[in-house]
Amino acid sequence: MSYVDEVLERVREKNASEPEFLQAVTEVLNSLRPVIDANEEVYRREALLERLCEPDRQFKFRVPWVDDKGQVQVNTGYRVQFNNSIGPYKGGLRLHPSVNIGIIKFLGFEQIFKNSLTGLPIGGGKGGSDFDPKGKSDREVMAFCQSFMTELCKYIGADTDVPAGDIGTGAREIGYMFGQYKKIRGLYEGVLTGKGLSYGGSLARTEATGYGLLYLTEEMLKCNGHDIKGKTVCVSGSGNVAIYATQKAQQLGAKVVTVSDSTGWVYDPEGIDVALLKEVKEVKRARLTEYAAARPSAEYHEGRGVWSIKCDVALPCATQNELLLDDAKQLVANGCIAVAEGANMPTTLEATEYLQKNNVLFAPGKAANAGGVATSALEMSQNSERLSWTFEEVDAKLQNIMVNIFHNLDDAAKRYNMEGDYVAGANIAGFEKVADAMLAQGVC
Ligand SMILES: NC(=O)C1=CN([C@@H]2O[C@H](COP(=O)(O)OP(=O)(O)OC[C@H]3O[C@@H](n4cnc5c(N)ncnc54)[C@H](OP(=O)(O)O)[C@@H]3O)[C@@H](O)[C@H]2O)C=CC1
Ligand SMILES: O=C(O)CCC(=O)C(=O)O
């Protein structure tokens, strides 16, 4: 049995109740086969893959807080510190009722390779809780965040582990968590990214994941003889990534015709009105029905359906496993030429395979959405320097990083005779640096 198959079998046995983690490991290890085969003796002796698939450590803790009625509520908090071979653990905090240890492990595992691809010195980690900020008052969110950080602050630090936002964790939550960290630890340091601009945040971090997605998509299209200008784009989600992906796509001359949330989706053939979307989602924290009610050209539909709309480019920006095999078939039938993942692992393994077999350009999340964490690393640099760069400086660095990521993964795929397989290219390019660092640092 090959080394990859042996490790996959062991990982499946040990983590049988964590389907998302198994999906992520299976995708990565399968596409690394040519690299592993070429170095099998060393990697096997050093148990490199076994070490890569086992987090350095994981914390699980109780998060008690008091709601507005005086009732004590209890949630579960997690932080998985997966791999710090190339830098301090770095990755977001997800607040969503679906959060469990398997989801946090899949996200932390993906983060190792994504962070490596940025070219910046950051390791992989992720955390979160099954707390749902939706429908909670600001005071309730603050009570939760303070309790969450009361425990989390024992394990993190500016040079140890630097969390950030993810689903359900935006500027409000990061602010409450930063305040509690400072109060307990007595340290004013860059322990979190995505901070407000008045207390150490970086300009362009809010926009970075969505903008970065478009910079990489634009480069991928250009290198394959297409222009983003004039393309019709379907976006899913309507949160941080989706909003700024929509904004940048329209700035680059494309037309975005859909967005969605967990209850429904909007089709707006005249192009999504970003100012209205921001008002509904960022200011009012309301449902998309409010967008449709205020916009005569928009249709609102319950449930899911974004991928049924004819488009040239599809940008899944909501959550994991939201683009299924039937959706991939529909996209191909409608003439879609490119899919780039704004979310983490939004496309199932079967759907990815189908898209690639049908010559759809496919940019995996760990490359396509790396602009968020890359800009977080730029925020860390600014905090260390005690300086703030302008929006234009940060945006120019982001653009450069995304273009480099595309060329690095394109080159890696070509080196292993897998030209055009950007999934393999991203995994190989991300893995090589981490593997080198792990080998150089000995058995640890
Ligand atoms: N923020 C960042 O910098 C980065 C985020 N990502 C990834 O991008 C994705 C989106 O994150 P972000 O925009 O920050 O999160 P937000 O919380 O801002 O928005 C999430 C969006 O996805 C929708 N959504 C969430 N869960 C589900 C679900 N189970 N089914 C259907 N829709 C759902 C939400 O709808 P509703 O409001 O109804 O819940 C909302 O529209 C995630 O996969 C995240 O891990 C990746 C890199 C960086
Ligand atoms: O900015 C960060 O540190 C993390 C962003 C994130 O969670 C992600 O890349 O999935």
Question: Overview of this structure, please?
Answer:
It contains 18 helices and twelve strands. The model has no long low-confidence stretch (mean pLDDT 98). The chain folds into three domains: 1-54, no CATH class; 55-188, 3-Layer(aba) Sandwich (Rossmann fold); 206-368, Rossmann fold (3-Layer(aba) Sandwich). It is 49% helix and 16% strand. Helix 7 packs across helix 8 (171-185) and helix 17 packs across helix 18. A seven-stranded mixed sheet has the order 9-8-7-6-10-11-12, with helices on both faces. It has 444 residues and is of the alpha/beta class. Bound molecules: NADPH dihydro-nicotinamide-adenine-dinucleotide phosphate and 2-oxoglutaric acid. NADPH dihydro-nicotinamide-adenine-dinucleotide phosphate binds next to helix 10. NADPH dihydro-nicotinamide-adenine-dinucleotide phosphate is lined by residues 165-168, 209, 237-242, 261-263, 317-319, 342-344, 369, 372.
Instruction: Report the C-alpha radius of gyration, rounded.
Output: 21 Å
Q: Averaging pLDDT over every residue, what do you get?
A: 98
Number of domains: 3
Distance between the termini: 26 Å
Determine the CATH topology of the largest domain: Rossmann fold
Bound small molecules, deduplicated: NADPH dihydro-nicotinamide-adenine-dinucleotide phosphate, 2-oxoglutaric acid
Query: What fraction of residues sit in β-strands?
Result: 15-25%
- Uncertain segments are none
Q: Report the CATH C-level class of the largest domain.
A: Alpha Beta
Q: Helicity, in percent?
A: 40-55%
Q: What name goes with the CATH superfamily of the largest domain?
A: NAD(P)-binding Rossmann-like Domain
Give the H and E element order: HHHHHEEEHEHEHHEHEEHHEEHEHEHHHH
Shape: globular
> What is the overall number of helices?
18
Which CATH architecture of the largest domain would you pick? 3-Layer(aba) Sandwich
Major β-sheet annotation: 7 strands, mixed
Reading side by side through the largest sheet, how are the strands ordered? 9-8-7-6-10-11-12
**Strand segment count:** 12
Structural class designation: alpha/beta
Protein name: Glutamate dehydrogenase
Domain Glutamate/phenylalanine/leucine/valine/L-tryptophan dehydrogenase C-terminal: 202-442
InterPro entries: Aminoacid_DH-like_N_sf, Glu/Leu/Phe/Val/Trp_DH, Glu/Leu/Phe/Val/Trp_DH_C, Glu/Leu/Phe/Val/Trp_DH_dimer, Glu/Leu/Phe/Val_DH_AS, Glu_DH, Glu_Leu_Phe_Val_DH, NAD(P)-bd_dom_sf
GO molecular function: glutamate dehydrogenase (NADP+) activity
